[in-house]
Design goal:
With 509 residues, the chain is mainly alpha-helical. The chain is built from 23 helices and seven strands. β6, α22 and β7 form a beta-alpha-beta unit. InterPro entries: 4Fe4S_Fe-S-bd, 4Fe4S_Fe_S_CS, Cys_rich_dom, Helical_ferredxn.
């Protein structure tokens, strides 16, 4: 099958990406693969648009408007001020006006006005209200899967409208109508049936970890272990399943293991909870998100661990940090017997859950890890702030810890570090272009063009400072950049995790 043909945007001479001239409908041809019968029915949705698709769409829209007051506020609050128009990486890369956050919202808002506001029912032509048509539904499917839910537009919105929440609602409505996305929905089936997003069964995971142990000892002469399903271990590590065998993800897994080894920690992975990622967030269905997250609580109770640590995955950390408490009772105040049992079991001298970067940085500050920074001298490093970490979570005890802690670790293990342009990192970081359920090859044109702003910023620091390594703490970002960098003339080997750098420099007895 021939690769899709499209024009790759040209890199700019500076870190900044110019606002393009609008090209009406330039991405209207893009459509993700539609979920089949098995994936839809497993999640409890119809698998095709029946004759009642319109009724189902409006019913679910009304249901979400009642359930989430924020959604109605976002529908009513927008004044079309334009503050968000040039903030979306997909608009900057594609020039399609429907990829302006305000225009993407408007696809739903015009239907909302028509059926859920009095002016829209009486005089729709006066308030920009429109009937729900099949063409509109197709636009929802196309453009709500050209949004990575990165929330950059929300940072700049004077009213605080969260476009990601609108995208999530749009996808849940589409699912309910029988118009789901193949990529996300099949992954949600795998994680519930098998235990992880990649469909890696327990015996295969056990063999993979055993092979990695052999490789590590052959490489450095130290028997670093990757324990699995060890009851009574102090720490449960929950990490994205890509860490088990994909490049460069596996290098970070080796880094975690070396850190635990150096600290003398008692830790384990779980075959039941072998996935930190939770695509329920992308689809806007909190019950699905809860079912996926409950595997972690079940594993923690079964193994009797005292601490839960999350590996390098952006949206996994956001779900853990922001939602595990209310979804599973891992945080305080869970009322069901299992939540109470878990609270009595966990050691609350430590954050529950904790990010692997927090754990490693604490050890570095205590002087418990030793490094040979020169081992990373072949790398000139920069760091990409992943969206869900940057705008949906925190690390450490101080505001902004999610920005400083990963950088502090990099500086502790390497001599050569340069940040990208200030306006492209931190809270205003540009998305990798592959998050939010967009990381699928049927959307490769969206992914490549959406990566343009980050590629411009990376290219600038590469030209000015000789940067040749893009450090990350997100599995989706790693998968996205290894695929996309070659389109812009960079080697895919320039991508890796923060704990890959730790692994290179750490000294082990």
């Amino acid at each position: 099958m021939a690769a899709p043909q499209f024009e790759v945007p040209k890199l700019a001479d500076t870190a900044n990406t110019e606002v393009p001239k609008v090209q009406e409908g330039s991405m209207s041809h893009i459509k993700a693969f539609v979920a089949g019968q098995a994936a839809q029915e497993y999640l409890g949705y119809p698998w095709e648009l029946g004759e009642d698709w319109k009724e189902r769409t409006l019913f679910k829209m009304g249901d979400l408007l009642k359930k989430y007051r924020s959604l109605r506020v976002y529908m009513d609050a927008c004044v079309h001020c334009g503050a968000c128009t040039d903030k979306c990486h997909y608009f900057l890369g594609t020039a399609d006006p429907n990829n302006m956050p305000v225009a993407r919202q408007e696809l739903m808002r015009k239907v909302y006005r028509r059926y859920f506001t009095l002016p829209g029912k009486i005089a729709p032509w006066l308030v920009g209200a429109e009937d729900l048509t099949r063409e509109t539904l197709d636009q929802w499917f196309n453009y709500y899967h050209q949004c990575s839910e990165c929330r950059r537009c929300s940072v700049y919105c004077p009213y605080g409208i969260d476009t990601a929440e609108i995208t999530m609602a749009g996808r849940e409505i589409l699912n309910y109508a029988g118009y789901g996305q193949k990529y996300s929905n099949e992954i949600l089936g795998k994680v519930q049936k098998i235990g992880n997003n990649l469909g890696l069964p327990g015996p295969a995971l056990e063999d993979t970890l055993a092979g990695l142990e052999e490789d590590i000892e052959a490489d450095i002469g130290v028997p670093v272990k990757l324990p699995l399903d060890v009851k009574g271990a102090e720490i449960l590590l929950v990490t994205p399943s890509a860490d088990f065998f994909s490049e460069p993800h596996v290098e970070s897994l080796i880094g975690y293991a070396k850190v635990f080894h150096a600290a003398g920690a008692s830790w384990t992975l779980s075959s039941h909870a072998s996935e930190a990622g939770n695509f329920g967030l992308f689809n806007g269905n909190y019950e699905t998100m809860r079912r996926v997250a409950m595997r972690i609580r079940d594993a923690a109770l079964e193994l009797g661990v005292k601490r839960i640590i999350v590996g390098e995955c952006g949206h996994a950390w956001r779900v853990a940090y922001s939602f595990w408490n209310t979804l599973t009772g891992i945080g305080f105040d869970g009322k069901d017997p299992f939540s109470i049992e878990l609270q009595q079991q966990l050691d609350h001298r430590y954050p529950q859950p904790m990010h692997i970067c927090e754990y490693t940085w604490d050890l570095i500050q205590q002087g418990r890890l030793q490094f040979d920074k020169s081992a990373n001298d072949h790398r000139v490093i920069t760091f990409h702030d992943s969206c869900n970490v940057a705008r949906g979570s925190r690390m450490g005890d101080e505001p902004g810890g999610q920005f400083t802690i990963p950088r502090n670790i990099i500086k502790a293990v390497a001599n050569n570090f340069h940040d990208m342009a200030a306006e492209t990192i931190g809270e205003g970081t540009f998305c990798c272009g592959g998050g939010g359920g967009v990381l699928t090859d049927d959307l490769i044109e969206v992914r490549v063009k959406g990566a343009l702003p980050r590629m411009n910023a990376y290219n600038a620091v590469a030209q000015e400072n000789g940067v040749n390594f893009l450090a990350l703490i997100c599995a989706i970002c790693k998968a996205q950049f290894t695929k996309v960098l070659p389109y812009y003339g960079f080697d895919m080997g320039q991508v890796g995790g923060v704990h890959q750098l730790v692994s290179t420099a750490i000294k082990l007895d």
